[in-house]
Write a structure and sequence with these properties.
Largest sheet of chain A: 2 strands, antiparallel
Order of helices and strands of chain B: HHHEHHHHHHHHHH
Structural class of chain B: mainly alpha
Low-confidence stretches of chain B: 255-275
Mean pLDDT of chain A: 85
Strand content of chain B: under 5%
Structural class of chain A: mainly alpha
Number of helices of chain B: 13
Oligomer: heterodimer
Radius of gyration of chain B: 24 Å
Helix content of chain A: 40-55%
CATH class of one domain in chain B: Mainly Alpha
Strand order of the largest sheet of chain A: 1-2
Shape of chain B: globular
């Protein structure tokens, strides 16, 4: 390794144009000029104008909503009278739904902690959407791993009777099976798309699916004693 | 002949006072337009140029911009709301009632604040998933993604602390349910719970704490991280568009190499010259 040059050198000695310059480009800190020239547009005024229009359209929509719908306001807070059910804000209802099945340490601390940790480390692992489709390379091995993970997850959710999370998991597993049976040469556009999805895509999509389903269940389908109610049933 | 508005404005821009305020000068040359961004303390967080294809709606859905929009609406409705609000029990509830029935446009202010808050939480989540599915979190943008996660948590906390302020049944029990989760943390759970609420249950102390967090600490923290978030977009080479990263970085992202060989982060932006 020591013999191998770690840099390249060049000399520019056009005395008319510039004084003598010597350039060293090391491999580790190679200066990079543009990757590809691409059409660019001035931020001022074009981009700022578009941003302003986008924000104004949003503001208009929100102002209409604010004029039509009133924010809820219930009776004065009363520590001696617990409403049934007592619900957290909607974005925490997925968590509250989990608290229904698992002990608080798992649902309230472990799961959110793991989710945040996973989100933070995403870019530091080679999870990248240009990677190969999950089932394209080492197909046998990946299909086997998929079956093991899906089975363990299903049994785990079944043993805690978490049907709310089980159904999205099974749907995702079914879609992944379709992906496993597809190839980039497939005639169907959807199948080509699925075949090229990498692992990170599947994990994130499963998480998004669970998040939406659990939050929706907590918001619309839970009544007194956290029992299942239909949205059209009065509480 | 009467002057047009544009001519009046151009005249205004030539005035000494105007030129003393705005460093960028006037004119529509590319240089002057770049200066309008670069010479402005707020706008210099953004790059002077943006890839044209990133302007299409499908590229970003403008989710980051819209999130900023909700934040601006929340600040500008939140400050007037503060003028009518006392963070004490039970005055807080009476103030909220007054906002509904006594204060001019109070109902509208509160409605707009609340629906914008919900919209912001939703938009932040949407922004995160959009960035993920585009792969825009990859090198050299990793740390900006982490800042984004921090901003997601701050947004949730902002919304959560604001939820208590009306001091009605909905607020009280939502915060009770939420804060009880903190007790589940092993060993120090009860201490965290106590620190958060200033007591063992949601009470007047909790209201004051949540008020200070909601109106002071969290917004300032959010602004701090938002500034870094924007600035890093520029320093990391602008809005990510597929295939826009320098070849070595792409190679690094695609094939497993030893970390020694890849390009040093931040180099591309610097080499491009004051990006």
């Amino acid at each position: 390794m020591a013999d191998q040059k770690d840099f390249t050198a060049g000399i520019d000695s056009n005395a008319k144009k510039s004084p003598r310059r010597i350039v060293f480009i090391t491999r580790r800190t190679s200066a990079q000029v543009k990757a590809e020239t691409e059409d660019q547009i001035q931020t001022f005024p074009e981009v700022l104008f578009r941003a302003a229009v986008a924000i104004m359209m949003l503001a208009t929509a929100l102002i209409w909503i604010a004029l039509i719908f009133n924010a809820p306001l219930e009776g004065l807070a009363d520590p001696s009278h617990t409403p049934n059910p007592a619900k957290a804000p909607w974005y925490f209802l997925g968590l509250q739904e989990m608290l229904h099945y698992f002990p608080p340490l798992v649902a309230g601390v472990l799961v959110p902690g793991l989710v945040v940790t996973a989100l933070v480390i995403i870019p530091y692992f080679r999870v990248n959407i240009e990677a190969d489709g999950l089932f394209l390379r080492d197909r046998q091995k990946h299909v086997r791993s998929f079956y093991i993970v899906a089975t363990v997850l299903t049994l785990f959710l079944l043993s805690f009777k978490v049907y709310a999370a089980l159904v999205p998991t099974l749907i995702m597993a079914a879609i992944m099976l379709v992906a496993a049976q597809s190839s980039p040469q497939s005639s169907s556009k959807l199948r080509r798309y699925l075949a090229n999805r990498p692992l990170s895509y599947w994990v994130m999509t499963w998480f998004l699916f669970e998040l939406v389903v659990l939050t929706a269940i907590g918001t619309f389908f839970r009544g007194p004693g956290w029992s299942w109610v239909w949205p059209w049933q009065g509480s | 002949m009467a002057k047009t508005v544009d001519q009046y404005f151009a005249g205004l821009q030539q005035m000494r006072v105007w030129r003393s305020i705005f460093r960028s000068g006037t004119g529509s040359s590319t240089l002057k337009r770049a200066h309008a961004i670069q010479q402005n303390v707020f706008l210099h967080l953004f790059p002077t140029k943006v890839r044209t294809r990133m302007l299409s709606f499908s590229a970003t859905w403008y989710l980051g911009t819209l999130t900023l929009g909700t934040f601006l609406i929340l600040v500008s409705t939140g400050i007037p709301l503060m003028l009518y609000y006392h963070p004490s029990v039970p005055q807080a509830y009476a103030d909220t009632k007054d906002l509904q029935f006594v204060v001019s446009s109070g109902m509208f202010l509160r409605n707009l604040h609340r629906w914008s808050a919900h919209a912001m939480v939703f938009l932040v989540f949407a922004h995160m998933f959009k960035v993920f599915y585009r792969g825009a979190y990859r090198a050299p943008r990793e740390f900006n993604w982490v800042i984004g996660v921090i901003l997601l948590l701050i947004t949730l906390l902002l919304s959560y602390t604001g939820y208590l302020l009306p001091w009605d049944q909905l607020a009280y029990w939502a915060i009770t349910v939420g804060s009880n989760i903190a007790s589940a943390v092993p060993l120090i759970g009860n201490k965290i719970h106590f620190l958060l609420l200033g007591g063992n249950a949601v009470n007047a102390n909790a209201l004051l704490r949540f008020y200070v967090l909601h109106c002071m600490i969290l917004p300032l923290t959010a602004i701090f991280f938002v500034a870094i978030h924007f600035w890093r977009i520029r320093k990391d080479g602008g809005l990510y568009s597929h295939g826009s990263e320098p070849p070595t970085l792409r190679a690094q992202a695609e094939t497993p190499t030893s970390p020694k060989i890849g390009a040093k982060r931040g180099t591309p932006a610097t080499a491009k010259g004051g990006n």
